[in-house]
Amino acid sequence: xxxxxxxxxxxxxxxxxxxxxxxxxxxxxxxxxxxxxxxxxxxxxxxxxxxxxxxxxxxxxxxxxxxxxxxxxxxxxxxxxxxxxxxxxxxxxxxxxxxxxxxxxxxxxxxxxxxxxxxxxxxxxxxxxxxxxxxxxxxxxxxxxxxxxxxxxxxxxxxxxxxxxxxxxxxxxxxxxxxxxxxxxxxxxxxxxxxxxxxxxxxxxxxxxxxxxxxxxxxxxxxxxxxxxxxxxxxxxxxxxxxxxxxxxxxxxxxxxxxxxxxxxxxxxxxxxxxxxxxxxxxxxxxxxx
Length: 290
Description:
CATH class of the largest domain: Mainly Alpha
Shape: flat
Distance between the termini: 27 Å
Radius of gyration: 27 Å
CATH architecture of the largest domain: Up-down Bundle
Mean pLDDT: 82
């Protein structure tokens, strides 16, 4: 967003009514902000998102207005309606994008937790099998370099030091975490502690579940990647080549002509689609070890 989170509270308090109306369209935004660790009110975030989208829409609208002024051959309706339509579409697009982004951040945090949890659970299993108490194990994990998992366990240790029981602190972690596998890990530990069961057996089951999950991610990604590569080859090579060839053939009969502008539009469109597909492949790639 073009409006920083530091400036959002002052702006949100001034336009609180606008924030309340926007937040009614996203009832789950409060939980997305909490899961994304963004310390800001829902109404304040909505106001900041609206004004950021308004700035983006103004930039695009003014740009098309300037283009219409320097291109006198364009029809008058396009000069008038183009900037207004671009302003409205850009405004809606960036409002939806900004309000949806906390869910994306929360999903990224959950993915980081799932990635590091396998190694943290193995470490916990080794320590528990060595006879180390569970509280000491949790403290060691919080002080280790397991990324977001260490941060979550640090909150558990702080809750315990603040007077909560170990079971209550684990329950709070399970409730606030966006990661389904961290929730399962916490509830398995809670059940084992309450029942007095063997923690090593519970952790072995957790490790096996996490390893199977990582393998399933790789298999599904490989299967999806084969289809994406096929589509990429069609978009980058087949469609532009065949399209230009067909236009050249049609131009012989005077139906359609291949102009430099049309050729540049085909190349540019193909390039943009290729960038989008490369970005999609990069985002969907399971980051297991980085």
